[in-house]
Write a sequence for this structure.
């Protein structure tokens, strides 16, 4: 299960998506997320699916590797779908006790699950094709205007970069601790829900200790190198837009226009709302 989490991981490959400026990918991800919430119909999701499929193909990241991240949220998807189906008011299909299964609930659950899956796949694709350093530089550049109102942009970007970098490290550490404790007779998958929660306590204690130790080592290393924040610092690899990035902006504009216009003029609803 831990190995199925793809957030924060970087997939090494030589593709146009990998070579794009991080700012383009950040803006593109934001535009993609916005289009998912423009309208609630299948037309917008079909356009988003075609766009996402094309980007995945160009990125050379295996689709199976990207979809691994969905396994970790399956329980959340199921719970969300059930709550929407039985707690949304509307025309009842089946009713028992105080719960009613409605057409409106089925529609809300269907569209919400599609949005969550597309959102996670799109966001994962951005982190899989962009290194943490590139994400930090891109985010700091995009938020640069906020420096004029004394917002610590560099520090915010640095914290996000460190958090993303630590996710795969902590997952690997968790996997090692679990295997070590299972070798000593610990059981994490058997028993009732309460027993499973109690079994996690011996796992969380060493994990927190390891995380605090790594954070302390990182802080001492930054202090030993006289780190003073982003004021006056130069970039080893300055961000610079190229022809590939300008072409990507054109494609994003066409995609946004197509989603906004076609989703409005040709709505397709297989489930009545």
């Amino acid at each position: 299960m831990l190995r199925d989490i793809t957030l924060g991981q970087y997939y090494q490959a030589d593709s146009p998506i990998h070579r794009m400026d991080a700012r383009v990918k950040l803006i593109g991800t934001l535009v993609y997320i916005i289009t998912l919430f423009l309208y609630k119909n299948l037309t917008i999701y079909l356009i988003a699916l075609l766009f996402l499929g094309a980007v995945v193909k160009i990125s050379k990241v295996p689709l199976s590797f990207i979809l691994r991240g969905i396994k970790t949220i399956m329980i959340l998807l199921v719970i969300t779908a059930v709550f929407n189906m039985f707690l949304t008011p509307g025309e009842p299909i089946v009713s028992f006790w105080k719960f009613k299964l409605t057409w409106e609930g089925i529609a809300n659950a269907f569209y919400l699950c599609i949005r969550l899956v597309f959102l996670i796949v799109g966001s994962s694709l951005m982190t899989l094709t962009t290194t943490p350093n590139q994400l930090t530089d891109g985010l700091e550049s995009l938020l640069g205007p906020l420096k004029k109102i004394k917002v610590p942009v560099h520090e915010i970007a640095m914290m996000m970069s460190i958090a993303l970098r630590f996710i795969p490290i902590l997952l690997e550490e968790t996997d090692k601790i679990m295997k070590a404790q299972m070798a000593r007779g610990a059981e994490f998958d058997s028993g009732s829900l309460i027993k499973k929660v109690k079994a996690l306590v011996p796992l969380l204690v060493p994990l927190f200790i390891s995380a605090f130790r790594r954070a302390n080592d990182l802080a001492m290393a930054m202090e030993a190198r006289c780190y003073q924040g982003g004021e006056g610092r130069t970039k080893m690899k300055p961000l610079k837009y190229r022809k590939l990035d300008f072409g990507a902006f054109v494609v994003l504009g066409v995609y946004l226009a197509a989603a906004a216009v076609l989703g409005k003029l040709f709505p397709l609803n297989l489930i009545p709302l």
Notes: Residues 2-265 form one domain. The chain has a mean pLDDT of 82. The longest strand covers residues 92-96. The two ends are 36 Å apart (CA to CA).
